[in-house]
């Protein structure tokens, strides 16, 4: 098994550089890789770009060659009709900058606008100056142009829609630049629908990120952008690629697992791999894995397609040059899940590219994929000697779609399972033993045998474990690790305490998770929409309530009840602070089913009593749904919210 570490990355990056002579070399036909100055904004300077280039240069042998200045490099006015760089930000000029980058084995990219002004920084746009600006760009030795849709005078094109105008303006610049310059069409709101015609316009890339602009460094937004990008898959490939925006690894807003998932999904989509973080901060274990990069840079240029999707669980497949396939298993959900796919008849060699683990299978590909993670396999028909593919599951979900971790209580023993399956069925597994470890002080004891002498093809070996968190364990999530058949599986379990017997105000309890439209859910006050503690007294149609939860619909608040509670009750209503505006529906969910609903309530209605039977439920949720209009004023109060337990 190969573990790709920063040390290994450093060794790979020590390869010699090949200087680039000029922008007149043949146009790139593969998705561009490099770094963008977007995070610097208009604080970008020549010195900052050169510093980033020095950090990027060790990555050049892997393909990261383009240093792209996103905007704010132009002087406010042209000189004798020609573009000039801002003398304060780029005192050495663009030509010298390009020469310096070429000497480092890098290339230079600049942003231009198809309109009358640049998108940022106040410089001129290229509207009606396409030929002159393209000549200037090539004279400087620029290798990449991001052509953005900003300040376009649509009034100059009466009777034409935005797409028609774009189909006039973008080809002008593409033709003027010629094939020696990478041409990245950038229309962030998607109004020009570039995927429909970008290939015909000879665009190297065309932006598909229409959900948020630019891409935020957050997992939910990244997934939404990926899903939008997948809708354009049929239009991509053959030297013209879908661009879902920049690689976020190293910025700090996502976990390592989530950054690896983004890189995997982008590689499967043959997307540009352009870093937004300072190259020095981009983790080599993610951005410098040559096997994963090879999937993105495969000469076929195919955009991976979804071949299976069960809501949160996705399988993508992509043909590779030479007859291999890339297959990605992506678990979008908040809990580890087993994802499977049939590779077809015959014997297959499968290598998980992030770890280097190699196995063989007679057709089934199956793995437990951690929450928010993606596994990436190269599949070939080679008959290499390798062990059979093993599917190792720790605490598998009991039902499809279960997204919360198993919850344990301090001092109480719970039960989880592990399963080892000889999925590959190419040989018998012998002497399989499962071992377990957990946080200090936790007791993990097997209730069933932990060893089996043989595991034939398709057979499964299950072990039941008794797990006890120590008394005093704080609420939160914890990891239990298991090893078997040369593999490691991790179970993420939650620790929470159920309410005590009698009646308890929900605002006095810790929730296990909460989602709210504006700001955090508030305890015993209304929702102030911003920081915690900024609410007002809970008030519905003039009646004040000392206790309750203040939310802003849509909202979802979950509590652990451990199967020992019987009922939930509250007064539902729209808080007076929004006047007669606002509307919401109030629900109670017990485990997987809705057990109470208030009906639609508006700001002009008094509070309505809601009572729900939650007998036997391990988790309950209070949900406020949007009333069918906008969510601006939907201050939803769960006043006097009480739970009764045994």
Automatic annotation (TrEMBL):
Protein name stated in the entry: Alpha-galactosidase
Domain Glycosyl hydrolase family 98 putative carbohydrate-binding module: 500-645
Stretch forming the signal peptide: 1-26
SUPFAM superfamilies in the cross-refs: (Trans)glycosidases, Galactose-binding domain-like, Glycosyl hydrolase domain
Record bears the keyword Isomerase: no
Regions annotated as coiled coil: none
Broadest EC class assigned to this enzyme: hydrolase
Keywords: Disulfide bond, Glycosidase, Hydrolase, Signal
Provenance organism: Nonomuraea wenchangensis
Reaction catalysis annotation: Hydrolysis of terminal, non-reducing alpha-D-galactose residues in alpha-D-galactosides, including galactose oligosaccharides, galactomannans and galactolipids
GO molecular function, one term: alpha-galactosidase activity
Pfam families: Melibiase_2, Melibiase_C, NPCBM, NPCBM_assoc
Membership in a protein family: Belongs to the glycosyl hydrolase 27 family.
Known EC number: 3.2.1.22
GO annotation (BP), single: carbohydrate metabolic process
InterPro entries recorded: A-galactase_NEW3, Aldolase_TIM, Galactose-bd-like_sf, GH, Glyco_hyd_98_carb-bd, Glyco_hydro_27, Glyco_hydro_27/36_CS, Glyco_hydro_b
């Amino acid at each position: 098994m190969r573990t790709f570490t920063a040390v290994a990355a450093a060794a790979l990056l020590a390869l010699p550089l090949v200087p680039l002579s000029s922008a007149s070399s043949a146009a790139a036909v593969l998705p561009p890789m490099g770094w963008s100055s977007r995070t610097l904004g208009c604080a970008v300077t020549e010195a900052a770009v050169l510093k980033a280039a020095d950090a990027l240069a060790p990555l050049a042998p892997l393909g990261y060659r383009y240093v792209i200045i996103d905007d704010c490099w132009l002087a406010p006015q042209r000189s004798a009709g020609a573009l000039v760089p801002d003398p304060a930000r780029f005192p050495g000029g663009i030509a010298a900058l390009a020469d310096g980058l070429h000497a480092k084995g890098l290339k230079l990219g600049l942003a231009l606008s198809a309109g009358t002004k640049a998108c940022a920084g106040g410089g001129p746009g290229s509207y009606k100056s396409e030929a002159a600006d393209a000549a200037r760009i090539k004279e400087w030795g620029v290798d990449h142009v991001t052509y953005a849709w900003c300040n376009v005078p649509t009034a100059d094109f009466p009777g034409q829609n935005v797409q028609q105008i774009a189909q006039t303006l973008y080809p002008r610049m593409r033709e003027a630049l010629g094939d020696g310059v990478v041409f990245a069409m950038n229309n962030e709101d998607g109004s020009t629908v570039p995927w429909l015609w970008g290939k015909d316009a000879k665009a190297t890339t065309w932006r598909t990120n229409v959900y948020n602009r630019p891409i935020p460094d957050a997992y939910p937004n990244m997934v939404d952008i990926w899903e939008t990008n997948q809708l354009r898959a049929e239009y991509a490939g053959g030297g013209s690629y879908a661009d879902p925006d920049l690689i976020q690894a190293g910025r700090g807003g996502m976990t390592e697992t989530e950054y690896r998932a983004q890189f995997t999904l982008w590689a499967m989509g043959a997307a540009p791999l352009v870093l937004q973080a300072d190259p020095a901060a981009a983790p080599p274990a993610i951005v410098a894995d040559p096997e994963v990069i090879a999937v993105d840079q495969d000469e076929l240029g195919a955009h991976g397609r979804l071949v299976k999707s069960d809501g949160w669980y996705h399988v993508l497949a992509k043909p590779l040059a030479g007859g291999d396939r890339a297959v990605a298993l992506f678990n979008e959900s908040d809990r580890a899940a087993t994802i499977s796919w049939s590779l077809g008849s015959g014997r297959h060699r499968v290598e998980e590219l992030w770890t280097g683990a190699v196995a063989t299978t007679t057709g089934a590909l199956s793995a437990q994929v951690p929450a928010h993670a993606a596994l990436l396999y190269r599949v070939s028909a080679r008959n290499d000697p390798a062990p059979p593919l093993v599917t190792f599951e720790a605490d598998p979900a009991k039902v499809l779609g279960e997204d919360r971790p198993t919850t344990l209580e301090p001092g109480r023993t719970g039960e989880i399972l592990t399963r080892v399956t000889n999925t590959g069925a190419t040989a018998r597994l012998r002497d399989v033993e499962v071992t377990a470890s957990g946080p200090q002080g936790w007791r993990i004891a097997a209730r069933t045998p932990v060893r089996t002498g043989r595991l034939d093809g398709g057979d499964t070996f299950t072990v039941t474990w008794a797990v006890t968190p120590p008394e005093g364990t704080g609420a939160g999530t914890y990891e239990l690790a298991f090893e078997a058949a040369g593999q490691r599986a991790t179970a993420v379990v939650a620790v929470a305490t159920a309410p005590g017997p009698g009646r308890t105000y929900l605002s006095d309890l810790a929730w296990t998770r909460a989602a709210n439209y504006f700001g955090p859910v508030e305890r015993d006050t209304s929702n102030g929409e911003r920081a915690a503690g900024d609410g007002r007294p809970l008030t519905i149609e003039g009646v004040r309530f000392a206790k309750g939860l203040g939310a802003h619909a849509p909202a979802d608040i979950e509590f652990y009840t451990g199967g020992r509670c019987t009922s939930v009750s509250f007064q539902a209503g729209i808080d007076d602070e929004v006047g007669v505006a606002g509307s919401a529906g109030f629900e109670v969910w017990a485990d997987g089913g809705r057990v109470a609903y208030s009906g639609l309530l508006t700001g002009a209605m008094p509070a309505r009593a809601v009572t729900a039977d939650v007998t036997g439920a391990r988790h309950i949720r209070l949900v406020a749904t949007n009333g069918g209009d906008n969510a601006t004023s939907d201050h939803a109060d769960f006043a006097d919210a009480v739970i009764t337990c045994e």
